[in-house]
From TrEMBL:
The keyword Mitochondrion does not apply. It comes from the Bacteria. Pfam families: HTH_18 (PF12833), PBP1_XylR (PF22177), Peripla_BP_3 (PF13377). This is Xylose operon regulatory protein. It comes from Polystyrenella longa. GO terms for molecular function: DNA-binding transcription factor activity; transcription cis-regulatory region binding.
Amino acid sequence: MTSRRSVALLLETSNAYARGLLDGIIDYLREHEQWSIHLGEQERGAKPPHWLKNWRGDGIIARIETEAIANAVRQTGLPIVDVSAARLVPSLPWVETDDREIARMALEHFLSRGFHSVAFCGENYFNWSRWRAEAFEEFANEAECQFESFDSGSRRRLNMGNTRQRTRLAKWILSLPRPTGIFACYDFMGQQILDVCRELEISVPEQIAVLGVDNDQRLCRLCSPPLSSIIPDTRATGYAAAQLLDELMTSSRTRKSQPAQILIPPQGIAERQSSDMYASDDVDLVAALRFIREHACEGITVNDVLRQVPLSRRALEARCQKLTGRTPHAEITRIKLERSKRLLRQTGLTVHEVAQRSGFSQAEYLSVVFKKQTGQTPGEFRSSGLAGS
């Protein structure tokens, strides 16, 4: 009888992102052989656990975010998978969220609502924030949007008890044109932006729309108004990390000249009140776009939209193209595709079932549209969620 492998998980248990990683690791273990897991309660940036120095295990999954953790795991000589963007040990295999895709999704969210002024609010000491900022600015420039940015300018996360930081953030928000869509580097930053907007009596989302990242549901619902947030696929990230570690522990080669780098795309956006508006005074167009957003996956056509508003087809198409850069038909297709992507990644539904729930008449039609828009078949897209980059 083969003995169980012993695996250490050096992950904080104090935030939603890390708990999602744990869920993915658990899912992998349920589908494969069980490991003997060593996991202690710890917070982000905690010191290495005292037991690690003399621990005799088989492998480690760690968020390596301090030099102390980096040194401790290196000294074990074991197969290790890093799930942190800090990249303190570049030679290690790495599994992380795709920050470039997160930034693309954020800009697409604001563009679809007609925003031509966007901003990024970040903590650029952290790699993941800086990568999101750089990609968001690149995409904003390509779309010819006005772009502004704010960096907390500290190695510590924004502390709203710090009067200087709070004053800097307030001054920056006041300097932005109206309306502007602000992409916050993560949900806590989004919460701080909403707090400052409330104190400054800036209307959200009418003057400033806000979008965060992580979809920490408790935090997002505590915000006033509730915070829209990009949903990282933490389950797939944890699953991929466990799968990669399993391969490393099985293989005789635990070191590679080019360590594996796996980036997991986000699932989608949890839309809440903080970004629930269209940057337009065109009442009829806004009504048409809201109808599309709410009913696109029910198989509606442009004719169904025209029955809701007193506009000709030519007028609707011209106004929609001017605000969003897409025709009404293209907007319907975009929303249907986004839903199909989420279903392919989050569920085990067949392509036929995904097509039905996304508003496509047939699975074959979904496949044709999917291939044309993404360059992949639905099946290839589903598999690529765990593919290395």
